[in-house]
Design goal:
266 residues; alpha/beta; 3-stranded mixed sheet; 51% helix; 16% strand
């Protein structure tokens, strides 16, 4: 097993192993709250991983006992001190959500402890979410007098449902992992001591499958949710590419030969 890792000055750590990239939100003293620099860095890191042909799946998780407490509110008197800086800040964190939402890589959030505000937004932007029983979820923007980014609100509605989105954003209430699973936000709730291994196993399963097929499916699902005509056309084009791909030929060969396929991503 080859593991490559790098420490980001902004508080994000990246590792790559066997086609799986992990972004670790590493700021334990602040319950992994995201600074302005970390939002910017998240955008750059996702782009960097997308450009790495060896990466097939992206896992997002927090260091220590928590996923992410959201934005670092202690910075707000400086970085969100007025309407102009607040808009600039929102563009930055909305850009981080968009980077995760729109990456061609399948994404998995492995959640423990707090998953609040911007942390909830990061998780909602991922394709799949699993959590430990101690996970807590909240979108407390109304308690700060702020509005949530529009596209990020779309992620919450798509992953938790309209009624739960209203409840979370209107009330600022916290829900536990069981309730988050109930509303569909979570795929699974697993014991705390197997959360990371389960996320890794799930990522490994996905990494073994055909990247072009997964990419087409990801865009097709997005098109179905958004009813966006251009997105549907893009999904169709990506699907058409799979018909002539080397991976499709390999999949047929492997089926005939009764062996696991080895997909190259083209």
């Amino acid at each position: 097993m080859t593991v490559q890792s790098q420490q980001n000055e902004a508080g994000l750590r990246v590792s790559r192993s066997n086609g799986i990239a992990t972004i670790l939100i590493s700021r334990e003293a602040k319950m992994n709250a995201m600074s302005q620099a970390m939002w910017r860095s998240m955008i750059d890191l996702v782009a960097e991983l997308e450009a790495d042909d060896t990466v097939r799946v992206l896992v997002l998780r927090g260091a220590g006992d928590n996923f992410c407490a959201g934005a670092d509110v202690s910075e707000f008197d400086t970085v969100r001190r007025d309407a102009e800086t607040a808009r600039s800040y929102e563009m930055l964190n909305a850009g981080a959500f968009a980077a995760i939402r729109n990456t061609h890589l399948p994404t998995i959030a492995a959640i423990s402890g707090v998953c609040f505000g911007g942390g909830f937004g990061l998780a909602a932007a991922c394709d799949l979410r699993i959590a430990s029983p101690d996970a807590l979820f909240s979108v407390p923007a109304a308690r700060l007098g702020l509005a949530y980014p529009v596209e990020a609100m779309g992620d919450i509605v798509a992953t938790a449902g309209a009624q739960m989105a209203r409840y979370l954003t209107f009330s600022g209430a916290r829900i536990d992992a069981a309730r988050a699973r109930e509303c569909g936000f979570l795929l699974e709730v697993v014991p705390s001591d197997v959360l990371i291994s389960r996320a890794t196993d799930l990522a490994a399963t996905i990494a073994r499958n055909a990247p072009l097929s997964i990419r087409a499916s990801k865009v097709s699902i997005s098109a179905a949710l958004t009813c966006n005509t251009q997105e549907a056309e893009r999904a169709q084009a990506l699907g058409d590419i799979t018909f002539e791909s080397a991976d499709y030929a390999e999949g047929r060969r492997a089926f005939r030969e009764r062996r696991p396929p080895h997909f190259a991503g083209h």
